[in-house]
Amino acid sequence: MTQISIPSTLGLARERTHIHARAADRGVTRHYRIGPVPVSLYSELPGLAHDFHRFYEPYQVFAPAVDSFRIEVRPQRSWRSLRRYIHIRTNGREQCVLRSEKSVLPFVEWTMNALVARFLPGYLQIHAATMSLDGQGVILAGAPGQGKSTLAAGLLARGWSYLSDEFALIHPDTRLLEPYPKALCIKSGSFAPLLKLGLPLDLDRVMHKGSKGPVSLLDPLAVRPDAVSSTCPVRMIVFPQYCPDAEPAVEGISRAQAVFELVRASFNFTKFRGPGLEVLVETVRHARCVRVRSGDLNRTGELIEQALRGETI
């Protein structure tokens, strides 16, 4: 006999509550401060504010900052085709137009990052993931596609603390790294190895991020409640290159080469110019500098930890 599973009354009540919560968030503005980044999100798209809040509730504030990045999400129908498009605007200016709701949350995060790169002048910004171990900050710097977010997630699974998967924010006076603990954006090619490490990826809510394809957002606080690092000094600079079938390896590089590479990876070096070079030189002076060929995440993590302790270079 075929058995039919009937949802429990409690399960149905929870689902209705979830649906009502998502619907109630439509047209609501919420304010957040994610590290030094003030964000106000307004959405007319049912459920988006609820989904964003799932990741950023610990950073909610109840009044907007004067310099808050205001992000608005509004669905509109084209007068030509009647197709519905989703418009993302920042401070009244259109940032992008999307067709699929599955793309909206990743592009809201992309919009936040674009605003940080343009309008957060108080920090020297490097395109990098940033982690810390026992209060020692590590910059994982480089171009897109080198596995920075995946490596950061692998280190998080090993007990490291998280600052960001997108920016190294270096304070020009203190030379300290500032946390910007946005959710990690994980591409589909990294789902399997990260699930193997026990990380809580939600594959029931896979989204789509343009040319990056399917992605999932990983909340560091869902890994450990104390997973987010405080400000910390830079003690190591890593330039990773992802080689999935290669044996992981670490190679030391000169501090001069590291400064050159960091200038290339900086979002706003031209705004700092001479003082920016001084910040990088002083930052690198107190850090070990290496290239890492990353593959197996556990083995790569072991090698980075050994290098941080000065055991391999």
User: What number of structural domains do the residues give?
Assistant: 2
| Shape estimate | globular
Please give the CATH architecture of the largest domain: 3-Layer(aba) Sandwich
What's the story with the biggest beta sheet?
A: 6 strands, mixed
Which class of the largest domain in CATH terms?
A: Alpha Beta
- Structural class per helix/strand content? alpha+beta
Unreliable parts: 1-21
Strand order of the largest sheet: 3-1-2-4-5-6
Order of helices and strands: HEEHEEEEHEEHEEEEHEEHEEHHHEH
Q: For the terminal residues, how far apart are their CA atoms?
A: 67 Å
CATH topology assignment of the largest domain: Rossmann fold
Portion in helices: 25-40%
Report the strand count: 17
What's the number of helices?
10
Work out the strand percent: 25-35%
The radius of gyration over CA amounts to: 21 Å
**What do the pLDDT scores average to?**
87
Summarize the topology.
Blueprint: H1 9-24, E1 29-34, E2 37-43, H2 48-56, E3 60-61, E4 69-77, E5 84-90, E6 93-98, H3 104-119, E7 124-133, E8 136-141, H4 148-157, E9 161-164, E10 167-170, E11 176-178, E12 184-187, H5 191-196, E13 207-208, E14 214-218, H6 220-223, E15 232-242, E16 249-252, H7 255-265, H8 269-272, H9 274-285, E17 288-294, H10 297-308
Parallel strand pairs: 2-4, 8-15, 15-17
Antiparallel strand pairs: 1-2, 1-3, 4-5, 5-6, 7-8, 7-9, 7-10, 10-11, 11-15, 12-14, 13-14, 16-17
Helix pairs in contact: 4-10, 7-9
